[in-house]
Amino acid sequence: MPVRIVSLGDPEQGFFRPVRAPYSLISPSPPADTLEARVFASIDDLEAGLSEIAAEVDLFHTQDCISRAAARVRTPARTCVSCAPCTMWTTSPRRC
């Protein structure tokens, strides 16, 4: 299955380490004053970026609560597959 890594980061700087998989970096908002505001801004930034590629991928696999919340861009036709601590969105009925 083809894989693409998606993360918040500066697209002009590239990923923070060498990776063999293709990746997309989503520009983050400027840092907010509080941790709570930073978390919600990260969710909104990831959601906006993921919505741009949602039609190109069949599966979202998330590793944390921020990216899991951002993965809400999937359509109701897609199935949410959850297993702690991750969530997968897929068109397949397969479960973890």
Q: What would you say this structure looks like, in words?
A:
The chain is an alpha+beta fold and 96 residues long. The protein has one domain (5-90). Helix content is 26%, strand content 23%. It has helices at 35-53, 65-70, and strands at 5-8, 23-26, 59-62, 79-83, 86-90. It has a three-stranded antiparallel sheet with strand order 3-5-4. A hairpin with a 2-residue loop joins strand 4 (79-83) and strand 5. The longest helix is centred in the middle third of the chain and has 19 residues, at 35-53. Residues 75-96 have low confidence and may be disordered.
Quaternary structure: single chain
Number of domains: 1
Strand order of the largest sheet: 3-5-4
Would you report the number of β strands?
5
Note the run of SSEs as H and E: EEHEHEE
Q: How big a fraction of the residues is strand?
A: 15-25%
Largest sheet: 3 strands, antiparallel
* Arithmetic mean pLDDT: 74
- Report the end-to-end length measured between terminal Cα atoms: 16 Å
Q: Bin the helical content.
A: 25-40%
Shape assignment: globular
- Rg, Cα atoms, Å: 14 Å
Number of helices: 2
Low-pLDDT regions: 75-96
